[in-house]
Amino acid sequence: MILIKSAGEIEIMASAGRICALALEAVKGIIAPGISTKEIEKFAHDLIKKEGGQPAFLGYRGYPAAVCVSINEQVVHGIPTGRKLREGDIASVDLGVYYKGFYGDAAKTFAVGEVSPEARKLMRVTEESLDLGISRAVAGARLSDISHAIQTHAEENGFSVVRSFVGHGIGRALHEEPQVPNFGPPGKGPRLLRGMALAIEPMVNAGSWKVRVLGDGWTAVTEDGRLSAHYEHTVIVDEGQPSVLTRLS
Ligand code: MF3
Ligand code: CO
Question: Cβ(105) to ligand 1 under 6 A?
Answer without folding.
Answer: yes
